[in-house]
């Protein structure tokens, strides 16, 4: 039986009340294709590279809203600011439940990765590549799950440090499970 460790709560917006064309226009956010993951893992196995996995803590809350988007929400019950009971909150960042939250997060992450020198793959929007001298760093994104691999372990650490400088991250160590798939890499063989 599990053990209670902490209380947890999330403030969410009633996204089901949002109206297309009025409250949002675009909600699509790319996710990593399974075939791309397989290809990366083949490279990893062939060249005996390490793959580090990490998770962005509360990723959607990092998503910045478009400058031309205005969304307001009522103050949550039991958290109303005294004296301002009739006021609403204007969102400046995405929040859970917002239809465009995944897209806001993806675009925020994309902008950051480009700023620090990664280039998005033309054919796979969730694969980013960075060349550092003779080294190549491959970074994949599936919503808030990120993997980083490279032919030099120091560059994996560099990529992790860059991400940590901008977002709160959980280091999951070497890859052993992704998208609910167990991954085992031994002796240049990948088993999924």
List the helices and strands and how they pair.
Blueprint: H1 34-47, E1 50-56, E2 72-74, E3 88-90, H2 101-115, E4 119-120, E5 127-132, E6 135-142, E7 145-150, H3 153-166, E8 169-174, E9 177-178, E10 181-182, E11 184-186, E12 189-191
Antiparallel strand pairs: 1-7, 1-8, 2-3, 4-5, 5-6, 6-7, 9-10, 11-12
The first-level CATH class name of the domain at 26-63 and 100-191: Alpha Beta
* Mean of pLDDT: 91
Strand order of the largest sheet: 4-5-6-7-1-8
Beta-strand percent range: 25-35%
Structural class from helices and strands? alpha+beta
Low-pLDDT stretches: none
CATH architecture of the domain at 26-63 and 100-191: 2-Layer Sandwich
Q: Helicity level, as a percent range?
A: 10-25%
Main β-sheet description: 6 strands, antiparallel
Indicate the radius of gyration in whole angstroms: 20 Å
Q: Count the strands?
A: 12
**H/I helix tally:** 3
Return the CATH topology of the domain at 26-63 and 100-191. Alpha-Beta Plaits
| First-residue to last-residue Cα separation | 29 Å
Order of helices and strands: HEEEHEEEEHEEEEE
Shape: elongated
Domain Reverse transcriptase Ty1/copia-type: 5-187
InterPro entries: DNA/RNA_pol_sf, RVT_2
Protein name: Reverse transcriptase Ty1/copia-type domain-containing protein
Pfam family, one: RVT_2
């Amino acid at each position: 039986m599990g053990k209670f460790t902490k209380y947890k709560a999330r403030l969410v917006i009633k996204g089901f009340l949002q109206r297309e064309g009025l409250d949002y226009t675009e909600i699509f956010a790319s996710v990593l294709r399974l075939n791309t993951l397989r290809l990366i893992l083949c490279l990893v196995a062939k060249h005996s590279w390490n793959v580090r996995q990490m998770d962005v803590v509360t990723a959607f809350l990092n998503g910045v809203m478009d400058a031309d988007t205005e969304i307001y929400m009522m103050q949550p019950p039991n958290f109303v600011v005294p004296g301002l009971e009739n006021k609403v909150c204007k969102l400046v960042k995405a929040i859970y439940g917002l239809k465009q939250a995944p897209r806001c997060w993806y675009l925020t992450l994309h902008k950051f990765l480009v700023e620090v020198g990664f280039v998005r793959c033309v054919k796979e929007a969730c694969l980013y590549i960075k060349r550092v001298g003779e080294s190549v760093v491959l970074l994949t994104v599936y919503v808030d799950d990120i993997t980083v691999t490279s032919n030099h372990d120091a560059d994996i650490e560099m990529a992790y440090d860059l991400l940590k400088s901008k977002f709160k991250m959980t280091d999951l160590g070497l890859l052993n499970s992704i998208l609910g798939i167990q991954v085992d890499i031994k002796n240049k063989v990948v088993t999924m």
